[in-house]
Amino acid sequence: MRIIAILSIYLQNKDCERRYTINLSTFRAGCTKMHLFILILLTADLVYVNSQTTQGYNLKALSVKEFLRFDANHDGTITLSEWETVLRGDDDDGDGIITCDEYVRHSSSPHNIALGVLNQFNGGDCKLTHDEGLVPYHHMDGNGDGILQEIEFINFYIQVLKNLGLTDHGHTTKST
């Protein structure tokens, strides 16, 4: 960001392209080698930032992926029936309790994240009862209409992930 700010200020002071994104084909002949040097620095900085973000977790992407796991009919909402169907499906042995192993096996999230999510709702005992499984559904239904909108789910799930110490792109704030 600092290079973008420097570049935009520098280019505004010169009579060169005033866009934050510069296409080499539109780079005016009047621009100096300094402009080109700044452009190269900006590109290098963007490549570095992109390499950092692709090595971690994107919280919204994790949330959307988990949402899709529950939204069986792909209508952009999750009904209580869809929610309960997933809970029953995650209970491999049909004993009414979802264990950590069962949840991790079915979750769309990586193992360590799935365990952390489950433990936020089961009291940390690695066993999720049906009643405990309904608690997040009712918490997410912010407007109380009985149907989870995608935005309700994603906002809630991102907060759950942040409670685990994750921030966007996998950088953690808590030691594990």
TrEMBL record:
Gene Ontology MF, one: calcium ion binding
Query: Is Manganese a UniProt keyword of this protein?
Result: no
Q: Where is the EF-hand domain?
A: 58-93
Organism per entry: Mytilus galloprovincialis
Its keywords, alphabetically, are:
Calcium
In terms of Pfam families, this protein maps to: EF-hand_5
Extent of the signal sequence: none
Q: What is this protein called?
A: EF-hand domain-containing protein
